[in-house]
């Protein structure tokens, strides 16, 4: 182990080096499992398994409306499959979703997929739930009752399982494709074309005019909910071009001073890579022209309005009770929440400094 952390950190710190080294070895281990089927098969012997039924994760109710995410050891999984008269070979349908610092590999396995192409019939949901003392609950429904780490892991697992389920055939030969052991790709045996899991890039932009920020809503959003402007990148576009086009398309404005801030994998409705940007409108050009085919409404909101909305708790319970709904913002889990929060913090700091 080198005394210095190299490019990342020039400090002579033992802990810092240790941290970096753990991360690097873990990354290399996961890479090996993706590349080497035998290594991955071996990792399945000692790994743990997250179960899904038709893309709904197995969850267990804990106290305070929270959900825990049970994991099964290899032996527990074999026992479960045995009870349903399934061969343990079925474990090889699982996909690799990560590993611990100690290199315990984590897999996700869906035993309830209904796809006609599958050679395995779905196992009965309620009998599995009884056996496992848990419930298979749609991720969208459960997401606010999970901790951030669990939700992120389940997002990845569901996205990967969904991708495999919907990419069973080669689009060139029409033949069934075969998953590698880790599930990081599928190969067509007849022409050797390799298919990799994909995410759609989406730009999400918080437009400001200096004092206010622009938020919009679609008719499908819960009542009162406004978010930043989002849109799928078109093929051939750069992120900058996608931001400019989406803002022009949706609210009829031209933006400048584009700044990238962060990104997030978002599983709904399919896998997207959300690329968060901040931008300002051109001076004197703030009049919004809403594109009604895309949005129900869009408006400028003051710092006070947004700061008050950020403090509001009980997102869903408040909505159902009242007809006149105040401004609601996306939940903490969504990158839009963090972009809006960061704008409020920057504005508050600069108004205090002034
Ligand atoms: N995590 C977060 O904070 C947020 C995430 N989002 C996500 O961003 C995504 C995009 O936002 P929208 O305003 O709906 O996009 P959008 O403004 O591009 O409009 C959606 C339309 O774009 C077309 N489209 C083009 N490429 C597409 C593709 N690859 N997949 C699906 N539709 C495609 C379809 O006609 C679709 O109806 C949504 O899936 C939404 O879940 C949106 C806001 C916040
Ligand atoms: Mg949009």
Automatic annotation (TrEMBL):
> Gene symbol?
Nudt13
The identity of this protein, by name, is: NAD(P)H pyrophosphatase NUDT13, mitochondrial
Q: Give the protein family.
A: Belongs to the Nudix hydrolase family.
User: Which superkingdom, per the lineage?
Assistant: Eukaryota
**EC nos:** 3.6.1.22
Q: Cite the SUPFAM superfamilies for this sequence.
A: Nudix
Q: Where in the cell is it found?
A: Mitochondrion
Where does the record place the Nudix hydrolase domain? 197-323
Q: What does this protein do?
A: NAD(P)H pyrophosphatase that hydrolyzes NADH into NMNH and AMP, and NADPH into NMNH and 2',5'-ADP. Has a marked preference for the reduced pyridine nucleotides. Does not show activity toward NAD-capped RNAs; the NAD-cap is an atypical cap present at the 5'-end of some RNAs.
UniProt keyword annotations, A-Z = Hydrolase, Magnesium, Manganese, Metal-binding, Mitochondrion, NAD, NADP, Transit peptide
UniProt-listed InterPro entries: NADH_PPase-like_N, NudC-like_C, NUDIX_hydrolase-like_dom_sf, NUDIX_hydrolase_CS, NUDIX_hydrolase_dom, Znr_NADH_PPase
Cellular-component GO terms for this entry: mitochondrion
Q: Name one Pfam family in it.
A: NUDIX
Record carries keyword Metal-binding: yes
Q: So which cofactors does this thing need? A: Mg(2+); Mn(2+)
GO MF entry, a single one? metal ion binding
Which reaction does this enzyme catalyse, per its entry? NADPH + H2O = reduced beta-nicotinamide D-ribonucleotide + adenosine 2',5'-bisphosphate + 2 H(+); NAD(+) + H2O = beta-nicotinamide D-ribonucleotide + AMP + 2 H(+); NADH + H2O = reduced beta-nicotinamide D-ribonucleotide + AMP + 2 H(+)
Task: Indicate the principal place this protein occupies in or around the cell.
Answer: mitochondrion
Which Gene3D superfamilies does the entry mention? 3.90.79.20, Nucleoside Triphosphate Pyrophosphohydrolase
């Amino acid at each position: 182990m080198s005394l210095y952390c190299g490019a990342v950190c020039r400090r002579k710190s033992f802990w810092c080096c240790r941290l970096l080294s753990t991360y690097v070895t873990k990354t290399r281990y996961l890479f090996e499992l993706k590349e080497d089927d035998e290594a991955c098969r071996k990792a399945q012997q000692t790994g743990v398994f997250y179960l899904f039924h038709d893309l709904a994760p197995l969850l267990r109710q804990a106290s305070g409306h929270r959900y825990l995410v049970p994991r099964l050891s290899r032996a527990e999984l074999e026992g479960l499959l045995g009870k349903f008269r399934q061969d343990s070979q079925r474990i090889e349908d699982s996909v690799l979703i990560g590993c611990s610092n100690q290199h315990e590999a984590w897999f996700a396995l869906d035993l309830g997929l209904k796809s006609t192409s599958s050679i395995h019939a779905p196992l009965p949901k309620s009998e599995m739930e009884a056996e496992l003392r848990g419930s298979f609950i749609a991720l969208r429904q459960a997401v606010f009752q999970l901790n951030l780490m669990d939700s992120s892991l389940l997002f990845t697992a569901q996205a990967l399982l969904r991708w495999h389920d919907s990419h069973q055939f080669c689009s060139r030969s029409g033949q069934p494709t075969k998953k590698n052991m880790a599930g990081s790709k599928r190969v067509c045996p007849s022409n050797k074309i390799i298919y990799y899991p994909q995410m759609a890039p989406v730009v999400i932009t918080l437009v400001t005019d200096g004092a206010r920020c622009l938020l919009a809503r679609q008719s499908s959003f819960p009542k009162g909910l406004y978010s930043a402007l989002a849109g799928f990148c078109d093929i051939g576009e750069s992120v900058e071009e996608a931001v400019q086009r989406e803002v022009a398309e949706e609210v009829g404005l031209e933006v400048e001073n584009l700044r990238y801030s962060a990104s997030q994998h978002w599983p709904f409705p399919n896998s997207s890579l959300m690329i968060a940007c901040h931008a300002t409108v051109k001076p004197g050009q703030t009049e919004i022209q809403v594109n009604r085919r895309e949005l129900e409404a869009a408006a400028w909101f003051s710092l006070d309005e947004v700061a008050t909305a950020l403090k509001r708790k009980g997102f869903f319970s408040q909505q159902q009770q009242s007809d006149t709904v105040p401004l609601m913002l996306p939940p903490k889990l969504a990158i839009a929440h963090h972009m809006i929060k960061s704008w409020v913090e920057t504005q508050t700091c600069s108004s205090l400094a002034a």
